[in-house]
Amino acid sequence: MSDSVTGRIRNAGLRVTRGRVAAIETLQALGGHRTVDEIARGLTGRGVKVARATVFNVLGDLATAGLVVIADAGPGPTRYEVATYDHHHFVCTICGSITDVPCAENGGQCIEPAVVDGTVSNVQVIYRGVCSSCEAGDT
Amino acid sequence: MSDSVTGRIRNAGLRVTRGRVAAIETLQALGGHRTVDEIARGLTGRGVKVARATVFNVLGDLATAGLVVIADAGPGPTRYEVATYDHHHFVCTICGSITDVPCAENGGQCIEPAVVDGTVSNVQVIYRGVCSSCEAGDT
DNA sequence: TGCTAAATTGGACTAAGTCCAAAGAAGCTC
DNA sequence: GAGCTTCTTTGGACTTAGTCCAATTTAGCA
Ligand SMILES: [Mn+2]
Ligand SMILES: [Mn+2]
Ligand SMILES: [Zn+2]
Ligand SMILES: [Zn+2]
Asked: What are residue A62's phi and psi, to 5 degrees?
């Protein structure tokens, strides 16, 4: 039940490999919502050599295990972030920035349960608009 | 103020071209949430010859004009649908099916306004889970 | 240490989408 | 309708995102 990166990977039932440890550490260090290629570059920067296909594999595995999360923001490459608290995203349609939006702002649910023909296990919300920086006219 | 496809395109301030008219008609006829390549095949099937790059252009333009809508469902190619009433989507994580979820089920807002650093102009919700057909064990 | 299942490798491959300069068409105005 | 301007289409090359696979390496266990 370790809380270290190694421990979290093992707890998730995954083998501890160089790539998995380094991917989480790199994603953590980079912060934010990152593409596979950004993470791959981050790994290279840290002197960790892993094949591109492996970075795809590793992030897919970590996502399945719930250690990282796909921060979907519409078109473009898939973006990952380290799993933390439950939140949604605000995407600026001008500069493309992605910022976190806490899910239950005032202690309640941010969204009503929907009536669907099946069972919902996860709800993802994307707020789109113009970020304050772009509103301020920042080029 | 015509309600025909031609009229709607013109009303939107766009030039009426063969490709634009045919794209809307094809998307309408196909129904559901379609990729550019599905629409391109639909066009070919109707005997309308348009370059693939044009199908991308046309759908982008129609989306900007609000005549079609991007039905985002996570990874994979962008999917379009003809603009109708406001709704969200339920995506089956097993079979990949996408079904509509009415936005304001009981007359209210389905989602609370979020506190973001900027101005939200659009909110998109993706419900993920298992559709009833997959729950029933359909292969 | 040795074994076995799981993971990585790298290179080829596919899919999704962009870009561009040249050619064509839509919507004016007269 | 002719002429003009601007927008749109074209098709082929190109880029980006991601998958696939057979050979090799490694993690975890006994
Ligand atoms: Mn986030
Ligand atoms: Mn829909
Ligand atoms: Zn912005
Ligand atoms: Zn299903």
From this structure: -65, -35
Q: Where are the beta strands (DSSP E) in chain A?
A: 34-35, 68-70, 79-82, 87-92, 98-102, 118-131
Chain A nearest-CA distance from B41, in A, is 22
CB contact, 8 Å: A124 with chain B?
yes
pLDDT at A73: 86
Does B137 contact chain A (CB < 8 Å)?
A: no
**Could you tell me the residue ranges of all domains in chain A?**
3-70, 85-135
A75 is near strand C: CB distance < 7 Å: yes
**Positions in chain C where some atom is under 7 Å from a protein CB:** 6-12, 15-20, 25-27
Domains A3-70 and A85-135 share a fold: no
pLDDT for B116 equals: 85
How many other CB atoms sit within 10 Å of the CB of residue A31? 9
| Residue B110 near chain A (CB below 8 Å) | yes
Is this model's pTM higher than 0.85 or not? yes
How far is it, in rounded angstroms, from Cα A94 to Cα A14? 39
- Average pLDDT rounded to a whole number, residues B109-114: 67
Assigned CATH topology for domain B3-70? Arc Repressor Mutant, subunit A (1.10.10)
Q: Which ligand has the nearest atom to the CA of B33?
A: 2
Fold type of domain A85-135: Dna Ligase; domain 1 (3.30.1490)
Q: What is the pLDDT of residue A102?
A: 87
Strand C closer than 7 Å to the CB of B128?
Answer: no
Q: Name B125's bridge partners.
A: A125
Give Cα A61 to chain centroid, integer Å: 13
CB contact under 8 A, B130 and A118: yes
Range of A19-28, A107-116, B127-136 with top mean pLDDT: A19-28
